[in-house]
Amino acid sequence: MKEEVVTVENLRKSYETYLRRGLFARERKIVEALKGVSFRIYRGEVFGLLGPNGAGKTTTVKILSTLLLPDSGVATVLGYDVVKEAVEVRRRIGVSLTVEKGFFWKLTGRENLMYFGMLYGLDGPELKQRVQRMLELVGLEELGSSDKLYEEYSLGMKARLSIARALLTDPELLILDEPTLGLDPPSARLLRELLIRVAHEEGKTVLITTHNMFEAEIVCDRLAIINKGTIVAMDTVDGLKRLVSEDITLEMLVVLPAKVSLKQLREEISEVVSGRVEVDPTEEGTRIRVVMKPSEKEQATQEMLRKLHSMGCSVRRIEVKEPTLEDVFIELTGGK
Ligand SMILES: Nc1ncnc2c1ncn2[C@@H]1O[C@H](COP(=O)(O)OP(=O)(O)O)[C@@H](O)[C@H]1O
Ligand SMILES: [Mg+2]
After folding, report:
1. 74 C-alpha to center of ligand 1: Å?
2. Fewer CB near the last or first residue (10 Å), C or N of the chain?
3. Which residues, in sequence order, are CB contacts of 251 under 8 Å at separation 6+?
4. Residues with beta carbon < 5 A to ion ligand 2?
5. What is 177-224 written as a DSSP string?
6. Domain extents for the chain?
7. Using CA atoms, how far apart are residues 191 and 203, in angstroms rounded to an integer?
8. How far is CA 227 from the centre of its chain?
9. pLDDT tens digits, 262-318
């Protein structure tokens, strides 16, 4: 049985804001940030909340981190209610909502972690070892940056330190709000690898939010797509892709010998594949597109190549196009 680490049931949250109408006049406005959000996260998985700005991601993770009260609905972490048993929840989670908040600029990374470790009730050799272990885990030790001043840290190092801090108390659940936001691509990549390692090797359960589909695709075991306060789909990456289409598109660019016409080419290709075949002349050569089931990919490709070879066509490029998370997203949210 998969153990449920996070249970979120019909969570709602509205904010009250004021719109300025002239110098003194203002108009009260209610923003419904969460309109009944439900999901579950199981032990050892990286679960992603993927959605555009304003979707309700931060609101959700703040409620789970006990920093914000929901208007209604229930959220529990390891069976503890985030509202009624907030202290128990806090003991079991590690949170990083903004990368830079709360660190001391004039202390080193290690000193910062020692400080927070003490705040969290660690001390003595245990504290020292734990800090050392975290510096190693997030790769700051390897970079030789553990004993550099925080003010000299790059954003990538700060992001790692923030994760090290969140992991100091050995929490079962790690909650990270847009952990790679603003990082340069190599740092973002290292951080993603770290998150996967934390979940799959350290046995932690990880909840991350992101607006980056590429990131969601590589990091998350399962994810929920959230838009305007509502979860519009939830599954594994492959499962979500299947929502859009089961089919893949094989695209080839070939050069035809003068004696072969486009019509002839289409007929010949149609003999070896079951799906629709399109043949179009382009500047670079003739483009062949075939829609097929994933299961026929291997064999159909082989037969097409054999066919093309026997007709004297030379193949310049072959590309397999599978649906992307972006396709899913656009389909589910109407592109907005
Ligand atoms: N403190 C706040 N006061 C008023 N509106 C807010 C506040 N925080 C968030 N919102 C609004 O709630 C909605 C969801 O915000 P948020 O949870 O931050 O989304 P995300 O993290 O996905 O970008 C947005 O429309 C946002 O403008
Ligand atoms: Mg946010």
Report:
1. 20
2. N
3. 287, 288, 289, 290, 317, 318, 319, 320, 321
4. 57-58
5. ESTTTT--HHHHHHHHHHHHHHHHTT--EEEEEES-HHHHHHH-SEEE
6. 4-235, 246-323
7. 17
8. 15
9. 999 999 999 888 888 999 999 889 999 998 887 888 888 899 999 999 999 999 999
With H, G, I as helix, E, B as strand and everything else as coil, classify residue 3.
coil
Choices 2.40.50.140, 3.40.50.300, 3.40.47.10, 3.90.870.10: CATH for 4-235: 3.40.50.300
- pLDDT tens string 199-215: 888 889 999 999 998 89
C-alpha 114 – ligand 2 centre gap (Å): 29
Calculate how far, in angstroms, residue 92's C-alpha sits from the geometric centre of ligand 2. 23
Architecture of domain 246-323: 2-Layer Sandwich (3.30)
Please name which of 91, 96, 215 lies closest in space to residue 161, comparing C-alpha atoms. 96
Task: Tally Cβ neighbours within 10 Å of residue 56.
Answer: 25
Tell me the C-alpha distance between 263 and 50, whole Å.
Answer: 45
SS3 58: helix
| Residue 53, ligand 1, Cβ within 6 A | yes
What is the per-residue pLDDT across 111-148, written as a single tens digit (0 to 9) for each? 999 999 999 889 999 999 999 999 999 999 998 999 99
Residues with Cβ < 8 Å from 214, sequence gap 6 or more? 325
DSSP string, 232-300: EEEE-HHHHHHHH-S-EEEEEEEE--TT--HHHHHHHHHHH-SS-EEEEE-SSSEEEEEEE-GGGHHHH
HSE-up of residue 67 (Cα within 13 Å, Cβ side)? 12
- What is the maximal distance between C-alpha atoms in the chain? 83
Q: d(Cα 9, Cα 40) in Å, to the nearest integer?
A: 9
18 lines ligand 1 (CB under 6 A): no
Pocket mutation for ligand 1, best pick of 59, 60, 225, 228 (most atoms within 8 Å of C-beta): 59
Would the CB of 52 count as within 6 Å of ligand 1?
Answer: no
Q: Choose one of 12, 58, 209, 230 to mutate for the ligand 1 pocket test, by most ligand atoms within 8 angstroms of C-beta.
A: 58
